[in-house]
Amino acid sequence: MTHAARRLAFACSIVLIIPLGQARTPVASGTGGAVATISEQASQSAIAILDKGGNAIDAAIAAAATLGVTDPYSCGIGGGGFMMIYLAKDKRVITVDHRETAPASVTPTLFQENGKDSDFDATLASGASVGVPGTVRGWHEALSRYGTMSFRQVLAPAIGVATKGFEVSENFQRMSAGSQKKLQLFSSSSALFLKNGKPLAVGSVLKNPGMARAYRDIAAQGQKAFYQGPIARAIVEAVGKPPVAAGVRVRAGAITLADLANYEARIRQPVKTTYRGYEVYGMPLPSSGGIAIGEALNLLEGHNLKSLPRASAEHLTMEASRLAFADRNAYLADPEYVDAPVAGLLSKDYAARRRTQMNAERAGPKVLAGDPYPFQNDPSVPQRPQAARLLADNAHTTHLTVSDKDGNVVAYTFTIESWGGSGIVVPGYGFLLNNEMTDFDFSGPHPNVPEAGKRPRSSMAPTIVLKGGKPAFTVGSPGGATIITTVLQTIVNHVDFGMPMDKAINAPRLSQRNDAATDAEPGFAGSAQALALEKLGYKWRAKPEEIGAANAIVFNADGTVTAVSEGKRHGVGSALVQKSAN
Ligand code: GLU
């Protein structure tokens, strides 16, 4: 998401391990498969599928579909995402890009009105912000290529939750309140998620028969049920003539039946870098996540972080992030439209040169992008794009992670972009449409301007880390552009500071994205750590908010797995293992 005001961050995450019937816990260890998600029902769906003999891919889709019911403001079939899969038999990592695309009618001036950028907040809740959803197609590709079960099998648990309903928690109510203004604009959305225009009471049961119907149609007819036929027609109608409440006017969009029928997911090779003996696999373009994290790790590798005082090591981590963000903002966009200098940005030689711009003693000023082209070693990428404007990002989404008894691993981040997406529930089908088009830069020249069929640049960063060719850990988070800093910080906490993963995740988060001010979480300012960083020149952004909702699985040397979710953020996560270790 590309804009100023950061609102409440939110995410659906699956990385949590809790034996069924026991108290919910954010950390669990055991053997067999493991799942961690922000939603207990979603974790249980994954375990149910693993227990029936499904693999990690089957279970991840079952969990994701359930999150679409229990965390509808963050994710669902109205959006898109990036799934990273470690295939144990082949010992390789692949990714399924099912990012939303711009409809065929889109031009670079989509978000220009009278020569100026369109109003951002008005654009967020509009048909024009909706990209062609990719989630169902992504699930189809993942299931048919790497799964073992049918849509009918993996969607069954989510259909159960949508039909029977789930209890509204305080966290759900908070999320409803965060989306309330947007939901009120659309009659289909307020009818489903609000009562008398207000969030549902804590403890009330929310059923979503429309969502159950959409899933049943997909279970019966496969992905075509979504991309052709009644659901597709309902999407076209909702985008072209948004179902607004009386007296409300919003901008319409122009997704056609052909846009939906033509949507394709992409199987992409991950980006890879090495870091202190680990092999770090990251999400490639059109996500900037893997490249920015890889570049920052390469910059940090030249410093012995663990020998430094904590504040100095954190300062260097933020400087590395600052430099990586300047490059990310300047160069990265959909690789089918832009020749981004990925090899140069990830080269260790480029890092060695760029590292000279890190001031070890002081928080640096805003920096310009570096020049990775001399390090590119790829003659197919000859041109420098125009200099870029830097944009702030927002934060809402879901990350989940699942492993199975055979050693397959899934790290999956998916989203409808901002909290509550476009605010438009597709009438009759109970899911919110994304507003992913706002992840494009509104004006150019810039590699990431809107174009027909293009995928907006993302920050999502599902990450799988190997050591000696075997999975060591996986980590990911929601949080818009803060995803990059959350994943980077968690890796540094775990690898450099030697923190167990639960401590690495629960540590206070900071996010420096080449801005004058740095994001810190509520309660951080005034702490000893904050004061130590202030002495190095750090200033904290006003109105601190929770950053991210990370999930991880650690693959222990003794063959057990430890799944870790947030202990405090976003409510407590829920982790389950097939067989808990006692
Ligand atoms: N739309 C964001 C992205 O792709 C993710 C949404 C979020 O986490 O807030 O980077």
Compile the SSE list and pairings:
Layout: E1 10-14, E2 27-37, H1 40-51, H2 56-70, E3 80-87, E4 92-98, E5 112-113, E6 116-117, H3 120-124, H4 135-146, H5 151-164, E7 166-167, H6 170-184, H7 187-193, E8 194-195, E9 198-199, E10 205-206, H8 209-221, H9 224-227, H10 230-240, H11 257-261, E11 266-268, E12 271-275, E13 278-282, H12 289-300, H13 310-331, H14 342-345, H15 348-355, E14 396-403, E15 409-415, E16 463-467, E17 470-476, H16 482-495, H17 501-506, E18 510-511, E19 519-520, H18 528-534, E20 551-555, E21 561-564, E22 574-580
Helix pairs in contact: 1-2, 1-5, 2-5, 5-8, 6-7, 12-13, 12-15, 12-16, 13-16, 13-18
Could you please describe the fold and organization of this structure?
Strands 1, 2, 3, 4, 11, 12, 13, 14, 15, 16, 17, 20, 21 and 22 form a 14-stranded mixed β-sheet that branches. The chain has 582 residues and is an alpha+beta fold. It has a domain at 27-266 and 391-509 and 547-580: Glutamine Phosphoribosylpyrophosphate, subunit 1, domain 1 (4-Layer Sandwich), CATH 3.60.20. It has 18 helices and 22 strands. Strand 16 and strand 17 (470-476) form a beta hairpin. Glutamic acid is lined by residues 1, 394-397, 415, 417, 436, 439, 458-460, 478-480, 483.
Give structural attributes.
582 residues; alpha+beta; disordered N terminus; two-stranded antiparallel ribbon; binds glutamic acid; Glutamine Phosphoribosylpyrophosphate, subunit 1, domain 1
Q: Would you kindly provide a brief summary of this structure?
A:
With 582 residues, the protein is an alpha+beta fold. It is 32% helix and 18% strand.
